[in-house]
Amino acid sequence: MNRTGVRTDIRAALTDLLLTPGLALDEAADRHFAPDYRQRTDGSWADRTEFLAHIAHLRTLVAGGSVQVHDELADGDRYADRHTMEVVKTDGSTVRMEVYLFAEFAPDGRFRRIEETTLLLEGSDADRDLGSAR
């Protein structure tokens, strides 16, 4: 399990990464993502460094939001969920994405790998790549 003795989940991870002003990006990432973390979003792979560049970019666009988990399953080192991420951007527009996610935990309870597919529910065509924009 991670430093707090608890396995992470997507709501906690996204809240720390994007919705907790003042929490340093490296601290948020270290809470939820193993050093060898990698992610595939809509077919594109990113290593931990590329993933953190993506989150740093999103932090410049996101003013607030919420995460609603609809389905969530964990079995051993495997995790799956379906969630909706709603983001209010700094320009006042709203983006809502439904995400289908499969993941693997590291032995310490942090995410080692996430593979996800996103579905834009609300937002402009330019927001379609928000899940992987850098």
Automatic annotation (TrEMBL):
SnoaL-like domain location: 27-113
Signal sequence coordinates: none
InterPro entries named among the record's database cross-references: NTF2-like_dom_sf, SnoaL-like
The protein, known as: Nuclear transport factor 2 family protein
Lineage: superkingdom: Bacteria
A Pfam match: SnoaL_2
